Amino acid sequence: MSLPPHHASAGRFRNPWPVASGDDALRSRIWRVAFEWVFGRHPPDPSPDELERSEPDPARPRVAEGGDPRITWVGHATSLIQLPGLNLLTDPVWSDRCSPVGLGGPKRFSAPGMELDGLPPIDAVLLSHDHYDHLDKPTVRTLRDRFPDAVWLTPLGYRAWFGSLGVEAVEERDWWQSGMLPGGRFEAVSVPARHWTRRRPGATNLRLWCGWVIRPAEQGAGPRVYFAGDSGYCPAFEEIGRRLGPFDVSLIPIGAYEPRWFMAPWHVSPEEAVQAYLDAGGRGAFVGIHWGTWRLTFEAPLEPPGRARAAWVAAGLPSRDLYIPRHGETIRFA
Ligand code: ZN
Ligand code: ZN
Questions:
Q1: Is residue 37 part of a domain?
Q2: What separation in Å is there between the alpha carbon of 218 and the centre of ligand 1?
Q3: pLDDT < 50 stretches in the chain
Q4: Most buried of 174, 219, 228, 298 (most Cβ within 10 A)?
Q5: Cα–ligand 1 centroid distance for 101 (angstroms)
Q6: 65 lies in a domain?
Q7: Residue 2 located in a structural domain
């Protein structure tokens, strides 16, 4: 039996779309990035007062039947998505540092927009991949204790990692596989992205990566939300829109894209993020995430919103549909 194109041999995964550079070119580029980083070509962190914040206003305990969906941006890829009767978290990270060791690695320059203590009850958590800015052990432990009934939806390859933390309610999904969410009104579909995984040396692409589409189990019976995870620009966006769209809300990363010669395969630029939204159907709200929290790459940390806005205007899209949230901001979608 032949494997799906994103399954490689020996249990690894791969991107089924061509990447401009080969592995060797990539390795030499990694060294160049390390060199540039060490010699200080990266821009400094912004000061905390450069980022405006909002007081979160989530529905408590949940959005009522027939109520408007709400999304509260905690920071980076962490959002609280509230649909009627259902509270979801994406890629929850509340730690200060996103790295294997608590004392090193990028340090948060903006506090989470919402305290973990302030969360309403969480029914399910959607994980896109295993990078440290998306999957954080201390946060998983806290959520496990606070919301023992929550279901964790992950791509393939995460059950053992969660099991070692005592989290057993893990449902792994291959791309295009769907599963019912708690309450039975919505389902979550794992969708492709062009990215990669690794949490320790040698473990490259042993776990899958993905985005998620949340849609009503019954056609037309509620909003459709697309959470893109981390992805380079690729044909997946068009296919996701064609198979599962149109979406009422799309959460798309707009940060961590410079230098392009290194990051383009794995992270969309703000302009590509807008193009991805258009490819996926070009309807509903665009919520720009994955910026303003850790300095992971070479662009100025506060550059992504301006470039995303300019690309949005250049594409002739209506300003009412563009949301670049503040940390802690709750967006209510009518
Ligand atoms: Zn990543
Ligand atoms: Zn990321």
A1: yes
A2: 32
A3: none
A4: 228
A5: 17
A6: yes
A7: no
